[in-house]
Amino acid sequence: MRPLFFCPLAIAVSIVAAPMAPAFAAPASSASARQTYALPAGPLETTLIAIGQRSGRQVAFLPDDVRGRQAHAVSGQLTAEQAAQQALQGSGLSLSISGNGALLVQPHTDALTLGVSDINASADRESAYAPVYGYVAKRGASATKTDTPLIETPQSVSVVTRAEMDDRKSDTLADALGYTPGFVSQPNGFSRVADDYTLRGFNVGSGTGGMLLDGMKLQSSVYDGGIEPFGLERVEVLKGASSVLYGQLSPGGLINAVSKRPTDTPLHRVSAEYGSHNRRQYTFDLGGPLDEQGEFSYRLDGLWRDADTQVDHIGDDKRYIAPSLMWKPNDSTSLTLLASHTEALTGLTPPLNYAMTTFSPNPGRKIGRDDFVGEPGYDHFNSRIDTLGYIVEHQVSDDLKLRHALRYYQSNVSWSYLLPFSISGNRLNRRYSERQERSTGWTTDNNVEWTLDSGRWQHRVLAGIDYYHKTYDTHRHISATVAQLAPSLDLSTFAYTGVGNNTAAESGWDIHSRQVGVYLQDQITFDERWVVLLGGRQDWAESRNYSYVTGSRTPRSDRKPTGRVALLYLFDNGIAPYVSYSQSFQPADVANPGVAQTFDPIEGEQYEVGIRYQPPGSDTMLSAAVYQLTQTNAITYDALSGQYEQYGKSRSKGLELEAKTDLADDLSLTAGYSYTDAHVLQDNVLSNVGKRLEGVPYHNASLWTDYRLAAFGLPQLKVGMGALYTGTTRTTPTATDRKIPAYTRFDARISYDVDEHWQLAAKAQNLTNASYLSCTTSCRYGDERSVIGSVSYQW
User: Fold this and answer.
1) Is the pLDDT of residue 72 over 60?
2) Strands 253-259 and 211-213
3) Mean pLDDT, the chain, as a whole number?
4) 722 in Cβ contact with 702 (< 8 Å)
C-alpha cells in the first residue's frame, strides 16, 4: 500500500493508508480556532505541513498525491480548513474531515475511502460575487441576474477575474478587458478619461447605458470618467442584445464591473510602484471581520498615483478610495454598504484627422505620437466621481430569495483643450474646446427569486422592477468658425504662446431622463440536461432636453417590450451547446445644439448559436459562438457639421472563440479570437451603404500565459507573456479611404515572492514599442513602451 502522510502538531510521520480514523484527534476547541497565515505559493507538501504545524490540526495525505503539485498562496486569519482550501485551489485535490477532526487531502476520486464528509466542492463554493482563485470563473450573474453556472448560461459571457487583472497589472478598464474576444477600445490616451468601448461592432460605452457596477447602471455620459479597476473583484462582459433584464442598452451588450466586497477573513496588502514617465503609485487593500462573531466585516481599498505620460504636459494623476461594510446578522440576511470616491487629474489626448498623423502618405508637416499640441496650463481633464449605495439580500426560505439594491452617482468634470483643426505649412490651427459638466444618477433594482422543484422539472423564476433616473448638464464653448480659432502653434519649434480669449458661444444642454422597467424570467431545467431560458420586459422611458442655445425644452417618451428565449443542453462530458434570440432597446438621449429635435430609439436583435466545454473536475472553460446582430435607428456624430444624425441599419456577423484554463498549479492561460463582419446596410448618405463600421477590425486575437518556474526549482518566480493582434480597420470615408494598418502588441510581467510577505514585480507594456493608430471618426496614437516595477507586502 502507498504511505499516507500525517501531520499532528509539529510532528510529521508516515503511516499506512487504511480505512480507519487517524490516531491523534484534534481538540474540539482547535477545530474552529483561527490563525494568521501568510504562506506564499510553493510546493503543496510544504504548505500542508506548515498549516498542520501552525494550527495544531492533523493533516493527512498520500505523498504521491501531492508530489510535484503547487499550493496557492494562503493569507489571512483563517481556520485550518479555510487555509487548506486556499492552498488546494486548482490542485485537483479535495479536502475532507474525518470523524475525529483530522484534515484529509485526496484526489477527486473514490480510490481512498475513509468514511468522511467531503467539504471541498470548489465549484459549489464559488459565487458570482466572490473572489476566484485563478483565471477560470465558473459562475456568473450578469446574464441572468441569478448566481448561475456559466456552463448553464445560453448566451456569450466572458469573465475577467481579479487574478487575471493582477497578473497583467491593469491600470484602466480597457487594459483589464483588452484580451477579451470581440472587445475593442481606444488607446489609454482616451481610455484613462472615459469608459467607451465596442462589443461585436457596436458601442457599449457609458453614454449608452452599457457600463454597469454591481448589476446597476452607472455613468450618465461617456465623459463622466472611468471605473477604477483596482476596486473590482471581477468584470463580466455580456455580449449582444441584452435589454430583457437591464432596459436601455446598445445592441453590443454590457460590461458589468463587480466591486470588491468585505471579507470574512483578514486581508492586508500594500504596494508601491515606480516606472516610466515618472510614475509613482501607492495602493492598499484591507479587509476582514470587525467582531469575533463575524457579524460585521469591512473592505477598504485605496490608490494614489502621480505620473506623467508619453505626451508632455499631460499627467495621469489619480486618487481613489472605496470603503464598504457588511452586516450579516444571520446566515439568511445581509446588508452591504458600498461607496467610492475617484479623482482623475489628467488630460485628453486630442483627436486627430488621419491626414495629420505620421501614418498618412500625404505630404506636409505631421503631428507625432509624443507631440503636445495644446497649451501648458490650459489643457486638462479633471473629474470627480462619487458613489454611495447598498445591497440587501434575504433568504426567506430554501426556495425564496429577496434582493433590493440602490445607488446614487455623481460626476463633475472640468475639461478644456485645444483641438487640432488644420495644418498650414508649419503652423497648426487650433480650435477651443471648453466644457463644464455635471452628471447624476439614481438607480435601484428590486427582485424576488423563487425556486420550484416538481420532479423532472425545476424552475428558477425571477421577477423584478428597476428604476434609473439620470441627469447630464453640459456647458460647452467650442470654436465653430475661423474667427473663433485659438492662436496657432509652430510645429517646427513648439513655442507655446498662450490661449487668448475664447469667444465661442454656449452650445450645451441639460438632459433629464428616467426609465422604469418590469421584468420576468424563468430558468427551466428538465431532467438535469435541458435548460430553457425565457424572459420578457416592458420599459417606459421619458426625457426632457433643455437647450442653452435656444432656451427650448424638448420632451420625449418611449415604451418598448423586449424579450429573450434560449435553449441549452448539458452533456455528461461537459459539453453544452445552446441557441438564443434576444432584443435590445436604447432611447436616444442626445441633442443637437440649437435644434429642437428628438431621435427614435435605437433597437437591436441578435441570433446566437454557441457551445461551451468544461471538462469535469478541471479548471478549464472553452467557448465558441457565432451570431448575427442587427441595429436599427443608429445615431452618429458628424464632426464636420457638429450635429448628431440618425441613419438606417447596421449589421454585425461574426465568430468568437475563447479559452481560459489553469492547466496546472504552475500554468494559467487565456486565449481568444474574434471575426467581426460589421457593415452599414442603410444610411442617409448613400455612399456609406456597404461600408465597414468605423474602428471595427475583421480579426482580433489575443494570448496571455502565466507560468511559475517550479519545475526549474524556482517556485517563487512567475513569468507572464501576452500578445494582442488587431486587424485592419477603417475610419470616416471623408478622412481617408485607406485601411488603418493592423498591429500586434506584446506585453510581459515577472514577479518574485521573496518570502511569505514580500513580492517584487515588473511589467512591460508594448514591449517592442510598436507604433500603431486607432481610428473611428478621428484618430489617436497607441501607447508607447512603458515599464513599471512594484514591491508589495502582505500580512
Assistant:
1) yes
2) parallel
3) 87
4) yes
